[in-house]
């Protein structure tokens, strides 16, 4: 029955019953000769009944008690019916919510990955599942309320990573606090305005596989070095003038063996970089570095391009001179190799907003179609295989650049437009910038 119908019926019933009750009391009073007394007593009886019903309703408004039966008819009964309905509905809803909550909890607990909820402000643990307990050596309930970073004693990068709130970059390959042989990865997920969810994954197997792959590549490359040196040596001993019929063949064999040597060297460089967690922190003077880069560019170009070097930042860097030189050289060599004769290559060292610096290598070459840009730093990824081979590329140059930069907490920005040219920029944070002892000169005048 709808609420309005119920109320209308209740009003009608109450009114009729009230009238009948008073009529009866009046009739009885008249028969006994005391009508006023009878009406007064009837009113008293009504008031007493109203108090009793009110008491009953109030008791049922306490949520722990459930109204089981609705008593009688009329307005009080209607009130009880409405309360009963609301109570039943609420109970059903909260039971459904509890069931849902339990199911979510069970799902989170049964997850093969560890899950934790922590406060964003101080990283204190709010909740964790069974897998997280095993992986991180937590104890329930003692660990609740403890800062998560405290479980990773000696691993300051966990604290830094939590403080930075990086949701897009997981923290890879950490030793588990419960067992250092177990390697774990952490990922931050925005969970609510005040909390983070941290997903913990056991990556021991993955890391072992990765290690096997790295060792395999490094070993193969290493093993190839000796036979290649021998082949190279013998090829060098053949004088094309003495065997004119072999000249073309020998030339091609030399080119190919050189390419293979370069490939092996690049693979070894990559393996070495991958195995490293950090590089030496040395002062890197940028003025001589830019001079060297210009010399290399000119040697590669053989006068086919205009090479410009602009030193505008007026500061130096900290990092590994050897590795950064290799990264910058790779970019310069690419710029020359992928720019047709008559083009221009500009090497610019400049400041960027926020206190960092960037070394940008800009060319007016072929450019790269947009769909290739996200993948060009992958190993052996080439936009045009034939053009890369022709120019002596191994397809590993940009992977090396990316690795070197990530070891310097720097990034590679690439902009390119087909037919107009490309800009590859190594962007360094303020932590990598150091004062230059002498003011930077315009290197166009230096060399
Ligand atoms: P490669 O040895 O083939 O040059 P890299 O890793 O250095 O390998 O570069 C990957 C691919 O990116 C290249 O094959 C080329 O297609 C493209 N590329 C790199 N630098 C440039 C550039 N300056 N202009 C146009 N294309 C480029």
Automatic annotation (TrEMBL):
One of its GO terms (molecular function) is phosphorelay sensor kinase activity. The keyword Transport applies. Gene3D superfamilies: 1.10.287.130, Histidine kinase-like ATPase, C-terminal domain (3.30.565.10), PAS domain (3.30.450.20). It comes from the Bacteria. Its EC number is 2.7.13.3. Keywords: ATP-binding, Cell membrane, Kinase, Membrane, Nucleotide-binding, Phosphate transport, Phosphoprotein, Transferase, Transmembrane, Transmembrane helix, Transport, Two-component regulatory system. The keyword Hydrolase does not apply. Its main location: membrane. It catalyses: ATP + protein L-histidine = ADP + protein N-phospho-L-histidine. It is found in: Cell membrane. Residues 219-432 form the Histidine kinase domain. GO terms for biological process: cellular response to phosphate starvation; phosphate ion transport. PROSITE patterns: HIS_KIN (PS50109). GO terms for cellular component: plasma membrane. Member of the two-component regulatory system PhoR/PhoB involved in the phosphate regulon genes expression. PhoR may function as a membrane-associated protein kinase that phosphorylates PhoB in response to environmental signals. This is Phosphate regulon sensor protein PhoR. It comes from Arenimonas caeni.
């Amino acid at each position: 029955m709808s609420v309005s119908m119920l109320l209308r019926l209740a009003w009608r019933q109450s009114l009729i019953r009230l009238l009948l009750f008073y009529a009866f009391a009046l009739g009885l009073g008249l028969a006994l000769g005391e009508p006023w007394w009878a009406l007064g007593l009837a009113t008293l009886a009504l008031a007493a009944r109203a108090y009793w019903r009110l008491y009953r309703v109030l008791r049922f408004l306490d949520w722990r008690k459930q109204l089981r039966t609705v008593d009688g008819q009329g307005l009080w009964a209607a009130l009880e019916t409405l309360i009963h309905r609301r109570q039943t509905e609420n109970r059903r809803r909260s039971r459904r919510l509890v069931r849902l909550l339990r199911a979510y909890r069970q799902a989170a607990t049964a997850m093969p990955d560890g899950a934790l909820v922590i406060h964003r402000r101080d990283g204190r643990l709010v909740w964790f599942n069974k897998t997280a307990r095993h992986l991180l050596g937590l104890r329930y309930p003692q660990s609740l309320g403890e800062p998560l970073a405290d479980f990773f004693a000696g691993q300051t990068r966990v604290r830094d990573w939590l403080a930075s709130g990086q949701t897009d970059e997981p923290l890879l390959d950490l030793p588990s606090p419960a067992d250092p042989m177990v390697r774990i990865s952490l990922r931050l997920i925005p969970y609510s305005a005040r909390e983070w969810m941290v997903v913990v994954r056991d990556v021991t197997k993955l890391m072992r596989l990765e290690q096997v792959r790295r060792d395999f590549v490094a070993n193969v490359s290493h093993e190839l070095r000796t036979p290649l040196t021998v082949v190279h040596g013998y090829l060098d001993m053949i004088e094309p003038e003495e065997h004119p019929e072999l000249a073309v063949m020998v030339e091609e064999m030399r080119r190919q063996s050189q390419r293979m040597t370069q490939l092996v060297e690049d693979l070894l460089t990559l393996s070495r970089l991958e195995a490293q967690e950090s590089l030496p922190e040395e002062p890197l003077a940028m003025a001589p570095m830019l001079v060297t880069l210009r010399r290399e560019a000119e040697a590669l170009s053989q006068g086919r391009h205009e090479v410009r070097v602009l030193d505008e930042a007026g500061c130096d860097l900290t990092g590994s001179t050897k590795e950064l030189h290799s990264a910058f050289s790779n970019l310069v060599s690419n710029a020359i190799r992928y720019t047709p004769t008559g083009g221009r290559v500009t090497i610019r060292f400049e400041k960027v907003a926020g206190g960092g610096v960037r070394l940008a290598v800009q060319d007016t070459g072929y450019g790269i179609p947009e769909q290739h840009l996200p993948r060009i730093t992958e190993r052996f990824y080439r936009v045009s295989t034939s053009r890369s081979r022709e120019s002596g590329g191994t397809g590993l140059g940009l992977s090396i650049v990316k690795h070197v930069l990530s070891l310097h907490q720097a990034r590679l920005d690439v902009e390119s437009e087909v037919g107009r040219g490309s800009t590859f920029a190594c962007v360094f944070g303020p932590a990598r910038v150091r004062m230059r002892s002498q003011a930077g000169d315009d290197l166009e005048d230096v060399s």
